[in-house]
Design a protein that fits this description.
- By secondary structure, the protein is an alpha+beta fold.
- About 15% of the residues lie in helices and about 15% in strands.
- The chain has one domain.
- It is built from 1 helix and 3 strands, in the order ββαβ.
- A hairpin with an 8-residue loop joins β1 and β2.
- The structure holds zinc ion (2 copies).
- The site of one zinc ion has 8 residues, from α1.
């Protein structure tokens, strides 16, 4: 077996972008970059926000579905 558990384990500091159509990590629904930014949904109450990397944050903000605070 050569399962790479690093691809499965979700680390606390990792980007939490779950957008499979995100151009930052094409072809996979999980980004492996460090989550250094927080973005918040605009269409619902979102107190905790989502921890994402800078590239995913930019894409999320551009989509208009997220705001920075
Ligand atoms: Zn990311
Ligand atoms: Zn992303």
């Amino acid at each position: 077996m050569s399962t790479n558990w690093n691809m499965i384990a979700k680390l606390a500091w990792q980007c939490d972008c779950a957008d499979s159509g995100c151009p930052v990590h094409i072809g996979t629904s999980q980004c492996s970059d460090p989550g250094t930014s927080h973005v918040y949904r605009v269409d619902m109450e979102d107190r905790d926000g989502t921890q994402v990397c800078e590239a995913c944050a930019n894409d999320a903000l551009e989509s208009g579905l997220f705001r920075e605070e």
